[in-house]
Amino acid sequence: MKTYLILAWRNCWRNRRRTWITISAIAFAVLLSILMQSLNRGSHDLLVENMARYSTGYLQIRDVRFEDDPSPDNAFEYGDAIEKEVLAMHPDVRMVIPRIQTFMLAADDEGTKGALVMGVDPEREQVLNGLMDQLVEGRFFSWKDGGSGIEPSEAVVSAGLAERMELAPGDTLALIGQGRFGMSASGLFVVSGIVKLPVVEMDRQTVYLSLPQARYLLSAEEHVTSLLLLPRHKRDTDDIAQTVRTKLAGTELTVATWEELMPDLLEFIKFDMAGSYVLSVILYVVIGFGFFGTVLTLTLERRREFGVLLSVGLKRRLLSLIIFLETLMVSVTGVLIGWLLTTGVLLYFVQNPIQLTGDLAESIMDYGWEPILPVSLDPGMFLSQGLIVFFLAVGISLYPMAKIARLKIIEASRS
User: Fold this and answer.
1) Do 311 and 64 form a contact (C-beta atoms < 8 A)?
2) 57 — alpha (psi -120 to 50), left (phi > 0) or beta?
3) Residues 6+ apart with CB under 8 A from 168
4) Vertex 96, ends 92 and 99: CA angle to 5°?
5) How many CB atoms lie within 10 A of CB 109?
6) What is the CB-side half-sphere exposure of residue 268 using CA atoms within 13 A?
7) What distance in Å separates the CA atoms of residue 138 and residue 156, rounded to the nearest whole number?
8) Other C-beta atoms lying within 10 Å of the C-beta of residue 88
9) Considering the chain, what is the average pLDDT of its residues?
10) pLDDT in tens, 218-251
11) Is this prediction's pTM over 0.70?
């Protein structure tokens, strides 16, 4: 076998220019295809990660009626005993993050805007999503487990909402809405800080209150609308969900994963990825025809050589094996060079993500995306492109192998 590998390798470099052109075309196809998929996956992964960390959580326990009627009426009791019970349900649950949320009107001297009001424990949110690190002005309200949390009445406002309402730290914000079971909910809050949220839709409308303050405002003492479960590893999400769902059977609570909480987003991602796959197919079809043209020319040029080799006793299957190895070697070399180039390009963009500006950035933000193009380093992309080129090479090598199988030795030797 070693002899055939050496023969195949030497044959590849009998025409160096043609070989390098073919290798370059394959490397370029691998580079472009992986880069397109990496940009798509990077953007999707960032969007999903931000939505999971700031909005839905990776796992969420809530009342079974909350999905159809997301109001404080469908909140459930929560305290230290329940938290211990939830933590004991699965060893891979790292932390429980309580939240209470509802939609209210946010008003100032100039007018009113719709707002998503979230009562949170800032220290636990910091572990989940680094919320306090997103502070751009002022400070976060100070509240710890065990404190009253009622005074002073402070709120942290998202940067988008603050811009729309022209708010700054120290300004007063009025929240007006409906609390639990039809109770009137209204209060005045001093804006203590402003946070810049990476989820554009949330950044335009979110007001954070301390959990006790939000409970008091909504007449929902000792209640929350959701418990977010932080897994030790994201890969454990489905396993934890299955276990918790079993233990919650027969109660009015249910657990949902982030995939179940964001079905529309996942459908959009699948649709968007389909476009990337179509472009990759078109790219490989073009490269495949170019590669086939090279192999076709090579086969016709070496017809007499094949006839002479067969006439001196070389078996057809061994000659076919050598031609297959030639095709495979050119393909593998192109893929390896493509992988090296792609790795360098992606590592650069990991450190320096592409920042979008101007009208394009505004258009991207209108869809709820951050105006940056991050990249993904998922090893699956590299493996999939290598397999595609391998099967492409196998398919193309069938042509010279078929020619060799039907080759007439005398005619080929005289050609």
Assistant:
1) no
2) left
3) 137, 162, 191, 194
4) 150
5) 9
6) 12
7) 9
8) 10
9) 85
10) 999 889 999 999 998 888 888 999 999 998 888 8
11) yes
